[in-house]
Amino acid sequence: MNYTISQVAQKTNLSIYTIRYYDKEGLLPFIDRENGTRVFHEQDVDWIDLICCLKNSGMPIKEIRTFINYCTDHDAVVEKGLEILVQHRKNVEQQLRDTQRNLETINYKIEHLPQMYREKFAVREQRKTELGAGNSELKG
């Protein structure tokens, strides 16, 4: 089945502008053209989904372009494309670990912050009371 750029935009939840930008950046070298109009196929939509996945997980456009070029090269440099994906997977796994640590810190603060503030204000009130009592002793 063939799709127009509008249909692909709807299927991928991307704007037409974004798809054109990806094409301009060399991320869509596999797109057919008929009379200057882009014609998309189901496989092209799958590639765009992969591009979005890589971009959303932190891979720079330049590296996505390199990956796409390796995968669409007639000399089939699949090994290099796989190296890029394996390295990116390591990066994403590290991001997940970092995000998990951040989530644990946030959860800890949510759980303990009210008590920490109660204790902080209790200490402050205690000091005020002690300072007030000390001032009374000086006057007497």
Describe the overall structure.
- This protein has 140 residues and is mainly alpha-helical.
- The chain contains 5 helices and 3 strands, in the order βααββααα.
- 10% of the residues are buried.
Short key terms for the protein model shown above:
single chain, 140 residues, mainly alpha, 3 strands, 76% helix, elongated
Amino- and carboxy-terminal Cα gap: 95 Å
The share of residues in helices is over 70%
| Overall shape | elongated
Helix and strand pattern: EHHEEHHH
Estimate the mean pLDDT confidence: 89
Placed side by side, the strands forming the largest sheet appear as 1-3-2
- Using only CA atoms, what is the Rg? 29 Å
Tell me the fraction of residues in β-strands, as a range: 5-15%
The major β-sheet equals: 3 strands, antiparallel
Number of strands: 3
Low-pLDDT residue spans: none
Number of helices: 5
Output the structural class: mainly alpha
